[in-house]
């Protein structure tokens, strides 16, 4: 049985994405996502030295050299940061650029003898992987999948075995230390997994896509969930989705602009798609997405406006001043600073909820509306009394503070305020505090 | 460029080489100066994001220029595209961070990866076009210093001049921004605007450097000279000068070396030279270099040892009496070899005299010994009377603090405890104490 070309490309990319996502979650939680960037750039000299020693392209030497270079750069970053007091970002930037430059020089020296291109290291040769296959159980699978699968399996086993330790170490290293879980060792394990993943993936998908696959699915998953196990699951799924969507985009999007027969680099498109997925999650995440938060905020603003409208009508009724027609909408627009369109919506909501009724432009509260408004005004005036007595807020500043606090005061809190102020009946401005509703 | 004599290259004999060397040297200065700001603002890696994000700009500019009927090879046009996407990335990182609440590195990784991915995808399209292959777009990734022409050098020179002039003109504000952002805001400095200007300067340096060192390694020229300069000095302007100098030397040496060997890519060699400068600075930097720090630590350890010895001498016998080795060992747990060495050193510096029956404090040594013992006991008294620590537990604390009590603090302790002129007596027995 043999799979077609595109399926094989997507298969390699999917496995690579999953392999990257696993250590990626722990790196991103720890705030070290760019370590993936550093390591995947730094493997270049290791590969070159591997070539120099073995002289062939497919070799254990190359793999080992890359792994050693990756771990070296992680260690060098630590040393520069800890011992030489270099800022962490700068330490990383120094270490990996020097490694990359060294690798570039070595590569150019080797260019005549071995067929390898520095560009391959950057953005991989995903399109070429299906050309070199091995038969496993009668299936012709790309050879490049081998190391990636091995690393993926290692990551899965390590994370499954050390799940508790890794989790505590990356969220709370101090707690891990007191529990005897050796957070430093856990950190090193994540680093080694990252280095192995970068090395296994760079040939197929290149270093830039490796860093994207490490960071982007994990970051996106963290937007969607707060539970580490769910985050890991989402990151794996997102990696697969990104790989499939990226390959599809690489094949079909250029056609839209340039006509039949044009396509582009799959790995580049996958990296870009992962960014798009991140932005989409950022906008549309159910609870913490930008849109959801905007909507919640608007709802809150609307609720506050409704409460303010209730308070306004209550105070006007309390003052026994004859209400003129349309006075309430005007006051609402002026004092509560609700825009003209919102005023109508607020007032119509009041009638719809049965809190107030309107007759010839004059508003009055219903029984329920009166109770709600009394509770609100009670909270307001209790706060004014409390702040004046206990916190020494000057009289001119009481209103503003109470105006904010009244909307977030629960009945229990109002009861405590009443106790603290000795069940005061009159607020500092001399107005009666409405009694507790039954 | 073939093999050339070192002297020819160093003295800029050849016009083309002179252009390259001058260009990279100027670039080094500008990158060092601007990189210092990035480093102090802890934004070093943002430069990496920006430089990766220039790729889609370059390629998109090429595609747009092609679509408009041009050849797409106009360098200013390509660099303009790079500037636009670079600025976009620099703006996007803080925006996404605020919106998502994630840590910096995750956002930077996403922006870096996806913008570079977009660049590569666009590059794939451009290379499929009939004329895309000859445009040299891939040269922006790794740089192509050797093929620099007059207009490249001019762009670098102009850009560098503008960046350096802007930085110096705003040096005072940048210093405030880097060291105390809140204070800068409180005295009415436009912090957000300054930050934006800083990012624009960084983008400018990165864009003019694309041709010379390529977008992957450009970040090295920004970060490494600045990080190396911090080993030499603490001053703000001084750090910039050092960083500019290190950048210049790296640019000059790197392009010179690569001009002499045709098969060495200039960008990478420049970065390697910068790396060597960094290693050298880390080892020998006058202010925070490792040798310097090791030396200072050594000097402190020596002083502590010496003061312990002098105190032990005074505690073992009144001034003028001979103290034998076993008495010293009874006073304190020494390592035998260390004690012997310290005794020899003290004799050499004239603080002790050696006699057949033991050692004796010289007048000079006695002054030092009295001072240390006095500091030690003042601190012990302070702990006993004002910190409520038992007399049996104060010795160890005082042992650590006696070496670093300065005159001012001693005066304060004297005012507090009023011990009089004489040495206060020890509140605990003086036998066999821990080291």
List keywords for this structure.
heterodimer, A: 438 residues, mainly alpha, ABC transporter involved in vitamin B12 uptake, BtuC, Arc Repressor Mutant, subunit A, two-stranded antiparallel sheet, B: 435 residues, 2 domains, 19 helices, 2% strand
Short summary:
The complex is a heterodimer of chains A (438) and B (435). By secondary structure, chain A is mainly alpha-helical.
Query: What is the total domain count of chain B?
Result: 2
Q: Secondary-structure element order of chain B, as H and E?
A: HHHHHHHHHHHHHHHHEEHHH
Number of helices of chain A: 17
Task: Sketch the major β-sheet of chain A.
Answer: 2 strands, antiparallel
User: Which term fits the overall shape of chain B?
Assistant: elongated
**Order of strands across the main sheet of chain A:** 1-2
Q: What does the model show?
A:
The complex is a heterodimer of chains A (438) and B (435). Chain A is mainly α and 438 residues long. Among the domains of chain A are: 204 residues, ABC transporter involved in vitamin B12 uptake, BtuC (Orthogonal Bundle); 73 residues, Arc Repressor Mutant, subunit A (Orthogonal Bundle), CATH 1.10.10. In chain A, 73% of the residues lie in helices and 4% in strands. In chain A, helix 1 packs across helix 9 and helix 3 packs across helix 9. The mean pLDDT of chain A is 87. With 435 residues, chain B is an all-alpha fold. Chain B has two domains: 282 residues, ABC transporter involved in vitamin B12 uptake, BtuC (Orthogonal Bundle), CATH 1.10.3470.10; 124 residues, Winged helix-like DNA-binding domain superfamily/Winged helix DNA-binding domain (Arc Repressor Mutant, subunit A, Orthogonal Bundle). Helix content of chain B is 72%, strand content 2%. Chain B has 19 helices and two strands. In chain B, strand 1 and strand 2 form a beta hairpin. In chain B, helix 3 packs across helix 4, helix 7 packs antiparallel against helix 10 and helix 11 crosses helix 12. The N and C termini of chain B lie far apart (66 Å). The chains are: A mainly alpha (438), B mainly alpha (435). At the A-B interface, helix 2, helix 4, helix 5, helix 9 and helix 10 of A face helix 3, helix 4, helix 5, helix 11 and helix 13 of B.
């Amino acid at each position: 049985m043999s799979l077609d070309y595109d399926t094989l490309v997507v298969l390699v990319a999917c496995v690579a994405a999953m392999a990257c996502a696993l250590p990626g979650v722990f790196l991103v939680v720890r705030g070290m996502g760019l370590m993936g960037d550093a390591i995947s750039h730094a493997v270049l000299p290791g590969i070159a030295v591997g070539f120099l020693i073995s002289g062939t392209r497919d070799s254990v030497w190359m793999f080992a050299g890359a792994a050693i270079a990756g771990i070296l750069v992680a260690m060098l970053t630590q040393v520069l940061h800890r011992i030489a007091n270099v800022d962490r970002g700068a330490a990383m930037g120094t270490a990996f650029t020097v490694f990359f430059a060294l690798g570039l020089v070595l590569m150019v020296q080797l260019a005549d003898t071995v067929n390898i291109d520095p560009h391959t290291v950057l953005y991989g040769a995903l399109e070429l992987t299906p050309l070199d296959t091995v038969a496993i159980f009668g299936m012709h699978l790309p050879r490049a999948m081998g190391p990636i699968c091995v690393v993926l399996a290692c990551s899965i086993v390590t994370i499954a075995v050390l799940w508790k330790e890794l989790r505590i170490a990356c969220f709370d290293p101090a707690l891990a230390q007191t529990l005897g879980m050796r957070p430093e060792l856990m950190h090193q394990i994540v680093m080694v997994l990252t280095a192995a993943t970068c090395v296994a993936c760079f040939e197929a998908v290149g270093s830039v896509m490796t860093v994207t696959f490490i960071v982007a699915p994990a970051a996106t998953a963290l937007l969607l969930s707060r539970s580490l196990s769910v985050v890991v699951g989402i990151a794996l799924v997102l990696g697969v989705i990104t790989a499939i969507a990226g390959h599809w985009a690489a094949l079909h999007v250029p056609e839209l602009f340039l006509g039949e027969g044009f396509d582009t680099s799959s790995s580049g498109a996958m990296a870009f798609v992962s960014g798009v997925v991140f932005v989409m999650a950022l906008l549309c995440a159910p609870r913490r997405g930008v849109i959801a938060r905007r909507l919640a905020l608007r709802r809150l603003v609307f609720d506050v406006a409704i409460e303010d409208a209730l308070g306004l009508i209550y105070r006007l009724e309390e003052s026994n001043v004859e209400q003129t027609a349309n006075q309430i909408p005007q006051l609402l627009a002026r004092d509560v600073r609700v825009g003209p369109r919102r005023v109508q919506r607020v007032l119509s909501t009041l009638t719809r909820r049965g809190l107030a009724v309107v007759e010839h432009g004059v508003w009055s509260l219903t029984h329920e509306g009166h109770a709600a408004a009394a509770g609100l005004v009670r909270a307001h005036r209790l706060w004014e009394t409390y702040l004046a007595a206990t916190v020494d807020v000057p009289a001119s500043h009481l209103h503003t503070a109470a105006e904010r606090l009244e909307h977030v005061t629960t009945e229990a809190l109002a009861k405590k305020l009443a106790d603290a102020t000795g069940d005061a009946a009159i607020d500092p401005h001399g107005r009666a505090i409405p009694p507790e509703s039954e | 460029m073939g093999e050339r004599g070192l002297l020819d290259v160093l003295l800029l004999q050849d016009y083309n080489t002179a252009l390259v060397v001058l260009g990279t040297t100027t670039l080094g200065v500008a990158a060092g100066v601007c990189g210092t700001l990035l480093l102090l603002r802890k934004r070093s890696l943002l430069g990496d994001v920006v430089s990766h994000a220039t790729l889609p700009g370059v390629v998109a500019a090429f595609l747009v220029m092609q679509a408009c009927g041009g050849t797409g090879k106009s360098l200013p046009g390509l660099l303009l595209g790079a500037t636009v996407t670079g600025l976009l990335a620099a703006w996007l990182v803080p925006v996404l961070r605020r919106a998502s609440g994630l840590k910096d590195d995750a956002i930077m990784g996403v922006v870096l990866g996806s913008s570079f991915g977009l660049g590569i995808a666009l590059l794939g399209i451009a290379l499929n076009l009939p004329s895309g292959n000859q445009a040299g777009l891939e040269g922006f990734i790794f740089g192509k210093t050797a093929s620099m022409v007059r207009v490249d050098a001019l762009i670098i020179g102009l850009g560098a001049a503008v960046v350096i002039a802007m930085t110096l003109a705003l040096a005072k504000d940048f210093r405030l921004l880097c060291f105390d952002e809140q204070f800068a805001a409180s005295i009415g400095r436009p912090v957000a605007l300054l930050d934006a200007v800083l990012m624009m300067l960084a983008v400018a340096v990165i864009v003019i450097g694309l041709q010379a060192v390529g977008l992957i390694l450009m970040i090295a020229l920004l970060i490494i000279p600045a990080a190396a300069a911090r080993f030499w000095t603490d001053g703000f302007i001084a750090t910039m000068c050092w960083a500019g100098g290190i950048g210049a030397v790296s640019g000059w040496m790197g392009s010179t070396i690569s001009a002499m060997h045709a098969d060495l890519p200039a960008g990478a060699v420049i970065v390697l030279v910068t790396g060597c400068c960094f290693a050298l600075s880390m080892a020998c930097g006058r202010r925070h270099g490792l040798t310097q720090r090791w030396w200072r630590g050594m000097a402190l350890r020596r002083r502590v040892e010496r003061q312990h010895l002098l105190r032990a001498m005074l505690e073992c016998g009144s001034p003028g009496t001979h103290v034998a080795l076993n008495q010293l060992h009874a006073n304190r747990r020494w390592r035998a070899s260390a004690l012997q060495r310290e005794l020899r050193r003290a004799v050499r510096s004239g603080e002790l005299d050696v006699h057949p029956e033991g050692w004796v404090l010289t007048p000079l040594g006695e002054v030092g010994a009295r001072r240390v013992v006095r500091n030690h006991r003042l601190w012990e008294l302070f702990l006993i009377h004002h910190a409520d620590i038992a007399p049996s537990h104060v010795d160890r604390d005082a042992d650590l603090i006696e070496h670093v009590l300065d005159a001012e603090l001693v005066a304060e302790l004297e005012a507090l405890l009023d011990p009089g002129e004489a040495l206060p007596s020890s509140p605990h027995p003086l036998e066999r104490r821990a080291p």
